[in-house]
Design a protein that fits this description.
By secondary structure, this protein is mostly beta strands. The chain has four domains: about 210 residues; about 200 residues, Immunoglobulin-like (Sandwich); about 200 residues, Uncharacterised protein YcnI-like PF07987, DUF1775 (Immunoglobulin-like, Sandwich), CATH 2.60.40; about 190 residues, Immunoglobulin-like (Sandwich), CATH 2.60.40. It is built from five helices and 57 strands. The strands form nine sheets. Strands 1, 2, 3, 4, 6, 7, 8, 9, 10, 11, 13 and 14 form a twelve-stranded antiparallel beta sheet that branches. The longest helix is centred in the N-terminal third of the chain and has 6 residues. The N and C termini lie far apart (about 135 Å). The N terminus and C terminus are likely disordered.
């Protein structure tokens, strides 16, 4: 049926259609007919007036735009059944009436009709209709920009209307006649103070007619925001309550509505910052496969669906509002970073009637602790029973649970549209099991493992080595570690370019200093993500002669975190030559993101950088590991070495006396011993020398004797120095040079010797035991480090401060002096030689002294 108040004149080229200037007005009134200006109140009625000028046409479409925050509650009245309304055989029940609509007709007269709330059609939020014959349906939409309500009426009956008034009842039960429904509020004014801006748009029936618009403000400003209650609730739940595990999290914000029509509504949440429990952090392993959604793909402020990549989804959002018959549900995407925020969240939720709610938020990270805060901004001014933000869980979750068990509080700080002091809401989560599901320990376990290997097992051969320190999920985090290489596994970095100190700090080392690769597995749970990089050789550091730089590329999914650089000093044991790599503290946070290192390792594979021991005795990599809590642990990994017995030991020896003026009885000649070793032979372990019977040990001219403790630490005084030593090795670019010292004996026997040699910051100490057997003075040089030496030369000075004295002269016709020498290799092979001691006599003067010399006045003394 058509609306029967008269049909407008046929369209003509001179048709006129306009909104009468100043005719559009809106009033919110209380029961006494006065202005209702209390924010959050339920007005008795809302009146909307409008006027039209039209000639030769009529209105086809109306749209009334409510200010954001002015809401309706569909559940306040029972809706009129849709089937009943569409049949038009009888009117809707009075219980469904929510207002009236009155028209002024261009032909004169007025007509007033009821407005009923209709049962919504599929896809609608709420709809309104009137009596049979007025076949226009008024529907409600949410604007995409501010989510305010817009009531639209399309395909209006062809009636020439000069104006009208729409009146919506704030509490329908107060205006209905003959009903018994409960008094429930249908309208609620915005819960913010200030002006209420309304809009009116109309369009005529003319082809391609434009929309005309008018605006108006309510006559009174809203006030009294301080009277609105604001007591939001916070709920929090972990998807995985095990420690140090990937987890999702569910955040619930509740703002229960008070349906008392005589009371003010509660304030609405505008911004929410939820400080998540301490220890609930981002997990790098969860970020590995995530993409980002751009602002263009989000389309903020547009009613269209977002086109974010599925791989950028990180969670879900649900909004339960009395405005909609069912919750608005949607997705949370990782948004592209902005200069102010690295971790942005894009929220897209939809519901009946094509509602699309879009907003942005963020996950903020405390750079000092890694603690997360979830930030939601400019939430829609809709009545919300509940807002749920869920971050996805599962093995690849973006979040990780706390490292330890216990109860962890969270706090939400919430601002309202009504202003005033922020509200606080508290909640907590409980972590009740370790990562593998077993009972929690306090403190958490700390038993790191070391896995190390050599690419070649043959003794004495060049090799590459790898070392990896492992931590099980749920154990304490590693703060730093030191790994001692097996005895005899000799580093040879001679000729390698060094990374400058300035570059070492950032890991930006030159390619020429690269000696291997580095890897770290980071994240929570049993599927960590691998960060890869390089190991570089660097110079002296923290008192050590050399160092390493571990530089890892921290690019994880969409997060470019730069380079994780860790420097490690390389120290050498004075007695054994054993190398130990001692790291600085490992990165715990990178730009606020806890990396949770589960494994960190290096593979040192530069050709010639390392050489295997020549001893097949049991050897191992030994680690000392410190936890973040200060707890200490040790771990070892064996190094198998084979084929030691196949190595030969064929050193060549040369011995000589020097100082022609001292080559006589009671003279103090200089003495030199040179040992040459072949490449590929076993390394020396011990060298034993028995001096000729004609030589005795004389310390009467020595300034002092080095205490044994100082000798052990390489701290002997120059006054105890009696000679020099030089060792050449293929592992260093420069020979090891140093001194020979006389050391206090352990008992009343003859004094011992100590040799201290160094090069490029590497210091090696050797000890020699003196003995006297069958009138011959012997020296046992023992404990030589298992390192490849090509030459070892020891020189004892002669003259007034010499320590060797001749009992008889070898010049000019003395008998040859011989010495017995034996050597032992690191593989246990022994050889013995009788070596002639050459004497460089020169010309002699009468009396037996060498020309130009004189007998030494010192008596011979052995001590």
């Amino acid at each position: 049926m058509l609306f029967a108040f008269g049909v407008a004149a046929p369209s003509a080229s001179g048709a006129v259609f306009e909104i009468v200037p100043g005719s559009f007005a809106v009033r919110a009134l209380d029961a006494a007919g006065d202005q209702e200006a209390r924010a959050g109140s339920h007005p008795d009625r809302l009146q909307i007036d409008f006027g039209l000028n039209s000639e030769g046409t009529s209105a086809q479409d109306f749209a009334f735009e409510m200010p954001a925050g002015l809401n309706g509650a569909p559940g306040s009245v029972p809706p009129c059944p849709r089937e009943l309304y569409e049949k038009g055989e009888e009117e809707c029940p009075a219980e469904s009436q929510v207002g009236t609509i009155a028209f002024k007709l261009s032909a004169g007269g007025e007509a007033t009709f009821p407005i009923y709330q209709l049962e919504p059609a599929p896809g609608e939020i709420i709809a309104f209709g009137s009596i049979a014959g007025f076949e226009a349906v008024l529907t409600m939409e949410l604007r995409p920009d501010d989510l305010g309500l817009t009531f639209t009426a399309g395909n209006l009956p062809e009636v020439a209307v000069s104006g009208g008034r729409i009146e919506l009842w704030g509490v329908p039960a107060d205006h209905q006649s003959g009903t018994s429904i409960l008094r429930r509020p249908f309208l609620t004014l915005p819960r913010r103070c200030g002006a209420m801006d309304f809009g009116f748009r109309a369009r005529s029936r003319e082809p391609d007619a434009p929309w005309l618009s008018a605006s108006a403000q309510a006559e009174s400003l809203l006030g009294g925001c301080q009277d609105l209650a604001f007591e939001p609730k916070l709920g929090l739940q972990l998807g995985n309550s095990r420690a140090d595990s990937p987890t999702g999290v569910r955040i619930d914000l509740g703002m229960p509505e008070d349906n008392d029509p005589d009371q003010l509504a509660s304030a609405q949440i505008r911004n929410a910052t939820i400080e998540l429990p301490e220890g609930l952090t981002l997990s790098p392993s969860g970020a590995a496969g995530i993409a980002v959604c751009s602002e263009a793909q989000l389309g903020l402020g547009k009613a269209t669906s977002a086109s974010c990549p599925p791989s950028s989804r990180i969670g879900a959002m649900e909004l339960a509002s009395p405005l909609a018959p069912e919750p608005l549900v949607g997705d949370v995407y990782l948004g592209e970073a902005s200069p102010e925020e690295r971790l942005r969240m894009f929220v897209v939720a939809s519901g009946p009637g094509g509602i699309v709610v879009k907003s942005t938020g963020a996950m903020r990270i405390d750079p000092a602790t890694g603690r997360l805060s979830s930030v939601l901004r400019n939430l829609p001014q809709l009545p919300l029973d509940r807002l749920t933000l869920s971050i996805d869980g599962g093995p690849g979750a973006l979040l990780a649970s706390p490292l330890t068990c216990g109860s962890f509080p969270a706090v939400a700080t919430l601002d309202s549209y009504s202003g005033g002091a922020p509200a606080k809401a508290l909640a907590s989560v409980t972590v009740g099991a370790s990562a593998d599901g077993s009972a929690c320990l306090s403190p958490a376990a700390f038993s790191p493992r070391l896995v190390a290997s050599s690419s070649v097992h043959a003794a004495g051969r060049p090799t590459a080595i790898s070392m990896t320190l492992l931590r099980r999920p749920g154990e304490q985090l590693t703060r730093r570690f030191a790994v001692s290489l097996p005895k005899g596994l000799s580093p040879g970095l001679a000729g390698v370019e060094l990374c400058p100190d300035a570059a070492a700090a950032s890991g930006a080392c030159p390619a020429g200093s690269r000696i291997g690769t580095a890897v770290a597995e980071v994240g929570a749970g049993f599927s960590p993500v691998a960060l890869r990089g390089a190991v570089y050789s660097a110079g002296a550091y923290r008192g050590a002669p050399s160092s390493l730089v571990l530089a890892l590329d921290a690019a994880i999914g969409p997060f470019e975190l730069g380079t994780m650089a860790t420097r490690a000093a390389m120290r050498f044991d004075l007695r054994t030559g054993r190398a130990t790599v001692v790291t600085d503290p490992l990165p715990g946070l990178v730009e606020g993101i806890p990396v949770r290192i589960q494994a960190i390792g290096m593979s040192l594979d530069r050709p010639g950088a390392f050489r295997n021991p020549t001893s097949c005795a049991a050897a191992s990599f030994d680690a000392t590991v410190e936890a973040a809590s200060g707890a200490m642990a040790t771990a070892s990994s064996a190094l198998p070495v084979t084929g030691c017995r196949k190595l030969a030991l064929k050193p060549r020896f040369a011995m000589s006396l020097s100082g022609s003026a001292e080559l006589h009885e009671d003279g103090n000649p200089g003495f030199r011993l040179t040992t040459r070793l072949r490449r590929g032979d076993a390394n020396l372990r011990a060298l034993r020398m028995s001096l000729p019977a004609a030589l005795t040990f004389d310390v009467s001219g020595l300034g002092e004797i080095c205490p044994r403790g100082d000798a052990r630490d390489g701290l002997c005084s120059a006054r105890a120095r009696v000679g020099t030593a030089v060792a050449q090795t293929s592992l260093l670019s420069s020979p090891l040079r140093g001194s020979v010292y006389v050391v206090a004996p352990p008992d009343n026997g003859p004094p011992d010797l100590a040799v201290s040699i160094a090069a490029n910051g590497v210091q090696v100490g050797l000890s020699g035991r003196m003995s006297l057997r069958h009138g011959r003075l012997g020296t046992n040089l023992v404990g030589l480090p298992d390192m490849p030496l090509s030459r070892l030369t020891m020189r004892f000075r002669g003259g007034e401060r010499g320590v060797l004295s001749l009992r008889s002269t070898p010049c000019p016709h003395g008998r040859d002096l011989t010495s017995r020498l034996s050597a032992e290799g690191q593989n246990g092979t022994r050889i013995a030689r009788r070596v002639r001691v050459k004497a460089h006599c020169g010309k002699t003067a009468p009396g037996g002294a060498a020309a130009g010399g004189h007998p030494s006045p010192r008596p011979t003394a052995t001590r």
